[in-house]
Amino acid sequence: MAKPDLMERVVNLCKRRGLVFPSSEIYGGFRSTWDYGPLGVLLKRNVKDAWWRTMVQLRDDVVGLDTAILMHPRVWEASGHVQAFTDPLVDCRNCKERFRADHLPESGACPNCGAKGSFTEARQFHLMFKTNVGPVEDEGSVAYLRPETAQGIFVNFLNVQTTTRKKPPFGIAQIGKAFRNEITPGNFIFRTREFEVMEMEYFVPPEDGAKWYEYWCQERLRWFVDLGIPEDELRLRPHDAEELSHYSAGTSDVEYLYPWGWGELEGIANRTDYDLTRHAEYSGQDLSYYDQEADRRYVPHVIEPALGADRCMLAFLLAAYHEEEVRGEKRTLLRLDPRLAPITIAVLPLSRNERLNPVANEVADLLRPRFMIDVDDAGSIGRRYRRQDEVGTPLCVTVDFDTLDDRAVTVRDRDSMTQERVAIDKLVDHVQEQLPT
Ligand code: ATP
Question: What is the whole-number distance in angstroms between the Cα of residue 8 and the centre of ligand 1?
Fold first, then answer.
């Protein structure tokens, strides 16, 4: 499918089926912000759960954290954000639109009106949202909405290290909202001003930084492939010297082939000892680690994989979207990994019928505590299968008139469309076998 069509179709599907709505839509929408509907909230939650499971649950060297969005303003001075968290901004003199100077097309033409040579000199635009805490609006009450969750982790390094008794190498993971006053949000949920990030700071002995940086680059790439993004739509792109932050000893982006070309999906950075050293300096607290075995004290170096939950959900949607022809009819389906699919199993009585409904309810009650299910009895069974395919439901369980006699149901697979007859008594085990954990 042509790539621009793909984006339009995914956006339409999200609106039509209640995954993502424009925010404040009855007021005409609000500046590239989005709301997640009943199916979207399930998908995004599954994305975050899959990340948490891989990064925290399945490892004994990473623990979780959930820190406040509002933090002491000194945090953002120490981190360098107050001074340098900016993007270069240019105005088009012709149409007055504003753009990020580093995102302009090579032709030099204005992406909005096509004018050439119409841009002003670039000036630095600050990306942090400022607010005031408490009833007095003066310089002393200024606070910022966090533009990343990482600083909440750094300022809690000592708290976490001493309470968990973890020794480097170990990591602290966090998922939470972040805010950036982006100059040009766009491409649906790819770039927004309010988004969720999933970040992990991995603290290591200084001499091991390069090794762990390599390790996390490969691990993070593998995660996307494991959850169904084709390998040829992913690549690891190391930043060149110009692009590299001054404190970074190496940064790579996991890039995805979006409909508009390659773009960042996740960033993995070797941040050295920059963050802990700066916070030690600004707070006056000693943030070094004493290694008892080696009898030495050092400031750990940090490897950070950072990924947007919304951007990542978009990549999973784009990779999963397929259209195919089945017996002369178009079938739209999301080939989402079952761990990500909003609904895992749909329970479908063959028709709306007073004899079938009690059995369908019984089957639904059996499955509900273990899986996210949907019960749908409206319309023809063919149409209901299509509706489930379209939102990526991996399995449909159909209750028909034979069920009344044989206490068995039909289990249909989304991708192959094959059907199997399974006894209700064995249904939970059967389904569990079909689904990856
Ligand atoms: P860019 O250069 O594209 O603005 P960045 O390099 O500043 O992005 P990071 O600070 O590395 O981004 O953020 C880590 C991750 O958070 C990104 O890889 C992306 O997945 C996500 N992210 C960053 N900014 C946004 C945003 N405005 N909207 C949605 N997700 C975002």
Answer: 22
